[in-house]
């Protein structure tokens, strides 16, 4: 039998095949892709349930508009301007609107906002794929967690651990006394951050980090956490990017390696401290911290509330509790220093309390005493109104059955949010002077007006997801502000200069350089 030899393709045949492949790859495929993108964009812009809401053009067709804006680090300002231009509802991505109507946060985050759940933005914040109270998106799991974790955050518990906060305050004041003696100016932005970090170390993991004693950012930990936040908060807006950003290839980049090394060092310090604290559980000392209540709960429900859960919550508290409180402290001091008449007024209140014997100038001011200083309380609230530490939309998914917000119906599973920075500057609530630092509004307004303004304060979020750490932050701030002012007169080194701010979820600030003049002896620093 003769075997048939397949015909060898002619040169013309080969050219024809090449031409078809070329056309497919370089003509039809790009045309199809372009059509796909254009049709997708048209659908998003004109045929979405959110189409009727105004906003920047690019925001209606791609989420990269908001990523770009977030990346530029002033999203709070952009949103304030957009709401003042377009009104209370602004579309910020094809799938999301931000709502600035004053009643919106009460609906989305209030105690009756049962069907809402946290949006996909929160997923990016789970380290090692474990959820904590902050990023748990399942409402039922979250409330169980919150029940287990909650007692440690109660005001009565914080008061029992107040002496840990006092101890950190004493170290800060001692360092300031030294710097004042040496005639050195200080970067207040760094020092308050070291204070809040050391406090949260003492409370959550049973050990201070030692930033205050060292007077520097040990191992660049603060910097590393800032950089991690900076990256994560925009990656969180496009969760599918996480695997492109964090993978084996990018892990080989020298800058990423440097950051990972610092981060691992930080993590291993924290885990080591937590282990030590677990070992000390049965020791006789009376020192109380958050672990006291968490371990108590563990002993009652060892299966449901494990040491692994405690470890996750303790590390999460380091992230949630340090930057936020430092930002609020910076805002308090910055606004006071930029408004010297308000500074003098608070100084007078402190001096009068000392003269009346209500404050003993021999130690860090107690939380109880700080509550007797009405102007201090007004200053603290006003600073957080004008400069909320978290000035990014707290993303929520609407309940599956849909919901009415600000007079508009939204279908289920749409992303909605409000931004504290915008809500707090609503002129219909806070008045035409809403952009000004005016602590007097909390003292001189009628009681109806004060409670109306209070209802719209949103610096700690709201409802079942309201900040767990607000009592810790309040105690920390109310103690250290009058204590610093009792011993030192602060002035901005460059009064004309503005602070530098960067919003990466936490609306952080830097470049607050101050001079210190000691005005009273510090007994423990002499
Ligand atoms: C001035 C200081 C603080 C501010 C302005 C602040 C602000 C906030 C805000 C706005 C939320 C809600 C975020 C959202 O819904 O996405 C929140 C949640 C939370 N904060 Fe704070 N925070 C502060 C201090 C602290 C401290 C000191 C801790 C812990 C030690 C802490 C722990 C938490 C936790 C665990 C949550 C999650 C609560 C939940 O989802 O159930 N915060 N905080």
Description:
The chain has 526 residues and is of the alpha+beta class. The chain contains 23 helices and twelve strands. It has helices at residues 11-46, 57-61, 64-71, 75-86, 104-109, 139-149, 155-160, 162-181, 188-205, 211-214, 221-235, 242-245, 254-279, 290-300, 307-338, 340-355, 367-370, 374-386, 420-423, 427-430, 441-444, 447-455, 470-487, and strands at 89-93, 96-99, 117-118, 186-187, 396-397, 403-405, 408-410, 415-417, 488-492, 500-504, 506-510, 513-518. A five-stranded mixed beta sheet has the order 1-2-8-5-3. It has a three-stranded antiparallel beta sheet with strand order 4-12-9. The longest helix has 36 residues, at 11-46. The radius of gyration is 27 Å and the shape is globular. The model has no long low-confidence stretch (mean pLDDT 93). Residues 133-134, 146, 200, 317, 320-321, 324-325, 328, 389-390, 394, 459-461, 465, 467-469, 472-473 line the site of protoporphyrin IX containing FE.
Compact description:
The chain crosses the membrane at residues 20-42. This protein is α+β, with helices and mostly antiparallel strands and 526 residues long.
What is the rounded distance between the termini?
A: 112 Å
Radius of gyration: 27 Å
Note the total helix count.
23
Helical content (DSSP H or I, runs of 4+): 40-55%
- Poorly predicted residue ranges: none
Keywords: Heme, Iron, Membrane, Metal-binding, Monooxygenase, Oxidoreductase, Transmembrane, Transmembrane helix
Cofactor: heme
Pfam family, one: p450
Transmembrane segments: 20-42
